[in-house]
Amino acid sequence: MGGVxxxxxxxxAVVVALAATGCGGxxxxxxxxxxxxxxxxxxxxxxxxxxxxxxxxxxQGGKVLDMIFRGLKKYDPRTGKAQxxxxxxxxxxxxxxxxxxxxDGWTFSNGEKVTARSxxxxxxxxxxxxxxxxxxxxxxxxxxxxxxxxxxxxxSADTLSGLKVVDxxxxxxxxxxxxxxxxxxxxxxxxxxxxxIFYTDHAAWLxxxxxxxxxxxxxxxxxxxxxxxxxxxxxxxxxxxNGGVTLKVYTDNNTAYTDLMAxxxxxxxxxxxxxxxxxxSDLGDRYINTPAGIIQTLAFPYYDKAxxxxxxxxxRTGLSMAINREQITxxxxxxxxxxxxxxxSPVLGTAGGFKAGLCGPACQYDPARAKKLVKEGGGIPGGQxxxxxxxxxxxxxxxxxxxxxxxxxxxxxxxxxxxxPVGTFADYRNRIGQHELRGPFRAGxxxxxxxxxxxxxxxYYTNASSNDGKxxxxxxxxxxxxxxxxxxxxKAVSTFQKAEEVVRDKMAAIPLWYQNGSAGYSxxxxxVALNPFSVPVYNEIKVG
Amino acid sequence: MPEQPYEPERAVAGTGMGGAMDLxxxxxxxxxxxxxxxxxxxxxxxxxxxxxxxxxDLRRNPVFIVSALVILFLVFISLWPxxxxxGSPLTCDLAKAQDGPGPGAPFGYDGQGCNVYxxxxxxxxxxxxxxxxxxxxxALLGSVLGGLAGYFGGLPDSVLSRVTDxxxxxxxxxxxxxxxxxxxxxxxxxxIGFMVLLGWPQISRIARGSVITAKQNDxxxxxxxxxxSDARILLRHIAPNAVAPVIVVATIALGTYIALEAxxxxxxxxxxxxxxxxxxxxxxxxxxxxxxxHALLWPSGALAITVLAFIMLGDAVRDALDPKLR
Lengths: 544, 326
Prior knowledge:
Number of domains of chain A: 2
Oligomer: heterodimer
Shape of chain A: globular
Largest interface: A-B, 30 and 23 residues
CATH superfamily of the largest domain in chain A: Dipeptide-binding Protein, Domain 3
CATH topology of the largest domain in chain A: Dipeptide-binding Protein, domain 3
Number of strands of chain A: 19
Number of helices of chain A: 18
Helix content of chain A: 25-40%
Largest sheet of chain B: none
Strand content of chain A: 15-25%
CATH architecture of the largest domain in chain A: Roll
Strand content of chain B: under 5%
């Protein structure tokens, strides 16, 4: 599973976070070791939860985790390819039993050594039902997960039987099925190592997380800002090229943009839709727009019978066909989004599983057919679609209004669809998590790592970690299991695409558009880039 | 006619003396008519009340004429918006987003391709409805509570005064954000209810003060001496003489309620789409100010003119009803 960062529900648009940022991989060492001491400020939103790595599945928290943690693997900030980072090697003969060797010389920012135990204990913590971590599901392939995190009842074990520490720098992983992509998932923040203080003084750790990344958290005031300082003794090649980052909380991306223009903010990684027409003249080449592994969809509440009854898939398909994606991406987003024709992302490449047109006519604007399908499916549950979204990032209000107008025009009912804004991303995620919503909701998915599996399994597999609408389909689950067991990558991809067709036929979620990462920065900064997850590569940024 | 206000007292005093000698019920009734038209007996015998005086003043006041015409127009388009705007305010064509004026759309189109002219016209209904109903609610609740407290005094009066103090301490916008954010109904009623809840103490204080003043007048004492009931005294003698300040303040407040509705809708806690409100439109258009300023300026201008019209009307009414302030 996915590993990697789960996609965090992308806050939206653009921005989402995550990812492996930084890595420098190939380029990381290029700038020489931290000469700059300048601190930059960057736009941000409060994370939903305290920053436990296994409990963070949204982009804003993920952004920080990617600055303060480094895992076994790291995703190249240019290509997204997983490369060994803390791992010296991850070996397997059968795609089911893995031997992980951890590099020597890594420590946490409090001086404690990073050992095999740092990983194994962290994974056991993340998997344990008792700790109720949102990303526990990512450990589901490790043998013994069903004992540690049973679907029902109390757990009968505290640790995963599939994890064994061999020596200080070696541990083994036994999976409960073959999963050839497993090593590539290990760059996801949920698999980060944790220091002892995480267990011995949990409250202190939550207040000021201690990690092993190029930055260390200095202070955090909810609703205001988080100060991260460069960790000078960071042993990796991707040392921070600046003195630190101040993440400033904004509840409106227009405000962030205005602050950027006024010189009060150095980096805004969420350009408001209303400014897309001006951003090139405002910022010149200080505006960057790069493809990112983000897809915006509308998810549905399958825990609500009205949306889960037979025939409802016709309503959903009808709604999908009532949305004029071409027009919205052009008029609202100035073509910085591309209409979606499948459920993945072009950044995967066709070899990686992206398949343009897989959605077929179900994603084509066809108002007449849309109206017919909605009618055949029994009409819109409750007579009105309320699309819930968070209003603080991503210019969601603009596109949700446009989607609703498109649906209203297609169905010939000016009140068929209405937007339902929630003030902040964190609150929005909470409401989704509590299954409070009774209608479709915005679901932006930022990949955790560039595998097709990550666009499907965490979102649509029964009880998967980010399957917020609780969609469940045995055919889909079967195909995903088969795909994961494939050792031939091409066959795995084609099996995943079959699973994707199930998603299409049931219209489990309506794909809207593929998103680019876009950001603007001040004249103080240079070497600013977004990684394929659309997160700024903070450690490479130079100030002044 | 500066002497006019004194007329009633004289009348009351005179009849009061007469009444003291003859407490016949019929006599009392005629007496009450005195105060009923206290402002009513003109020197030339033509009945001239405070109200007709005020009306005469107002008719000559250009500020009143202009604001009244604006308000009449607003009321008209609130009742029959389709008379001057074609199409539905909810029909938007994204292909025209941010376009300037065109046929049938003299104000251009907003960021969603909605017709700004149509939406601005339809938005008047919301504003006028909220303003008028909130004012009525506030005036009724405030004057009844304040009037009773002022008339009877004692413990209820003290309690009410403290309660109004508490309500005065609630910041309006903050209160709106807190109270209205939990409301899911998308009608004007929660907004009106909120305004009444926070608006009545102002009126109640004014009503209380003016009732206390009025009840000390001799004609009230006389009516009491003649055995009139509290209800009768309140309704026949006090209310007509205490209501003027309430009307003045309520008229001015009407404009502020309209502005408050727009503020709350702007903040996302008042009315919500698909309701049509100037506040919603202003909020939606503000990010586009650089590329489509017309979408922001027209609803803002309509709001400003409407609020101004009601406040000027209130001013004119105050001048007419309360000559002492002139």
